[in-house]
Amino acid sequence: LYFRELHQRNCFRQECFSVKYKTPQPIGEVYFTETFDNGILTGWVLSKARKEDTDENIAKYDGRWEIEDLKENRVPGDRGLVLKSQAKHHAISALLAKPFIFADKPLIVQYEVNFQNGMDCGGAYIKLLTDNDYLNLENFFDKTPYTIMFGPDKCGEEHKLHFIFRYKHPKTEVFEEKHAKIPNVDLKKFFSDKKTHLYTLVMNPDNTFEVYIDQVVVNQGSLLEDVDPPINPPKEIEDPNDKKPDDWDDRLEIPDDISVKPEDWDESQPAQIADPDAFKPEGWLDDELEYIEDPNAEKPPDWNEDMDGKWEAPLIPNPACKIGCGQWQHPMIDNPKYRGKWEPPMIDNPNYQGEWTPRKIPNPDYYEDRNPFLLSSFSALGLELWSMTSDIYFDNFIICSDKEIADRWAEDSWMVKKLVARANEPGVFTQLLTAAEERWWLWIIYALTAGLPLVLITLFCWPRKKKDEDAEYKKTDIHKPQTKGALEQEVKEEKATLENTTDLEEEKENQDDGEIEKEEDDETEEKSEEENETIDEQEEGSKSNKSGSEDEMKEADESTGSGDGPVKSVRKRRIRKD
């Protein structure tokens, strides 16, 4: 609720609130808890053992442990166990309040890890040590029997989250390691972001399991189906004494015995030949060496010829060999006549019997365990680690049988760290710049994200303005109202314009006729009269057309009445156009 209130106030800076941390207390029955807040390793035992099959210089578990605050995003009053040494073996363990016995209650294991310097190669997993009479925490080392191993591990680019349990074979009574399937999530960020992460394992009596990181399921499944190797062996196995018969033919293809090598097949041709078209470049120096002794080199003053031999100057490329030096040779090219050794083509084997497999026999070690949850009990928690990176932070271990207890424990501890880390996170702009430093292609995405809205605004808004202006112009032109008087006035103006045009045409024709008469004075008088008659007929036809056009406009004018002006206006225009 406090975190939600800060979110509503849009205030995540640490100065907006004060963290009041209180050491968490379990609300129910637990098998083990540890917060390290008192600054003392009470109940924890450092190992004095030596790692077997290892170089003597690093075999000892002499890695240093300290109780410290977090280096970043620290919470006042909260401390944790820190692995301090680099490239050393570390081993520390503590007994549980009482052994955990697998019966009818779930198992919940939970703790926090922070890779404060990132992680190059190393682990941060825990081991739940098997309860037995010879368990000695001072001798805790890599071969100490454990029941469950759980936690993160990394080396190189391989990121892991282990969940391994040792299962006792019911018949042979030999312990076998069973590995849970690989989580289908990217674990890289949990090793590199320098934040405190919460790791939780839940095993249920119905043989199911869940693995959480930061209270989010990252892996789940069944102990019967989702571990490797599987709990129950196969009912049948291949007979180890069965052998393939000598006459068993498992060749899928065989050489064709009928085929014959072609007569023109030449096996003597080499794969490559000297290029006959190549020629020695101009300026090639046949008598020069490709490398010469360095003229500026000097024998070292401490050179001892009795111990080091005769001193020779180092060789350097010959500066005179700009084109080439030494004996010139034709470059080699592929031989177009090369065919290689002839071999008969392969054909399907008519006697093919298939791939041979041994016969199946009943598995003498077969068993069926329907409840693998019943593992060996454990009575201690230990960290046995090798790391090439220091300052690995561990905190707030809890082992119980109630998930609600573990969730409440995390709420009082890990959630406080998460809140402080969130408050100290940089702004969005800074995060974007940081991300782009590692991934250059993010700049392209940023540019598209910023420029795309501008492009869309230009495409959709700019043309729309022009379209609106055109639409407004057309709307005004079409729906302009006209009255009867306006139509009559328009008809009169058009009639006057038409009469003026006709008079101008007649006058122009008369002028043209006069010019023609002057130019053709030597023609006969009869021909002139015929031209004049033709001109008169054209004038009469023009007047007749004028009279017909006026009659049509008059009829249209008489048919015009008061009513829909625009519709009648269109009809008149069509008559005048015709």
TrEMBL record:
Residues 502-539 have a biased composition (Acidic residues). Signal peptide: none annotated. Coiled coil: none annotated. It comes from the Eukaryota. Belongs to the calreticulin family. PANTHER family: CALMEGIN, CALRETICULIN AND CALNEXIN. This is Calmegin. The lineage of its organism: Eukaryota, Metazoa, Chordata, Craniata, Vertebrata.
